[in-house]
Amino acid sequence: xxxxxxxxxxxxxxxxxxxxxxxxxxxxxxxxxxxxxxxxxxxxxxxxxxxxxxxxxxxxxxxxxxxxxxxxxxxxxxxxxxxxxxxxxxxxxxxxxxxxxxxxxxxxxxxxxxxxxxxxxxxxxxx
Length: 127
Description:
Secreted protein, signal
């Protein structure tokens, strides 16, 4: 239950900060919106997969594959260096969860992914 609240908080934070974006350029604002949307979708899919892993452990792998695809598309659609780094960090979080699952963990810690989602929110916040 605590993990779900943390996930919800990270996703809500990223989405809220994106909504308040005062980015200097329209392109960055659009990148932020796309990123927040992709992250919310990705984290939700992974959270659902982890919570139902006992019923079907392959769902985690399917969710991770979906996240990888979304992140690949997202990285290719931005030329903002800070946002690219945040996407890279999110990709590393996915890799960490994938490694845990490969090692037999059916309830992996998805904190690296929620942390990366928070970082994207920070990137999208005006400085």
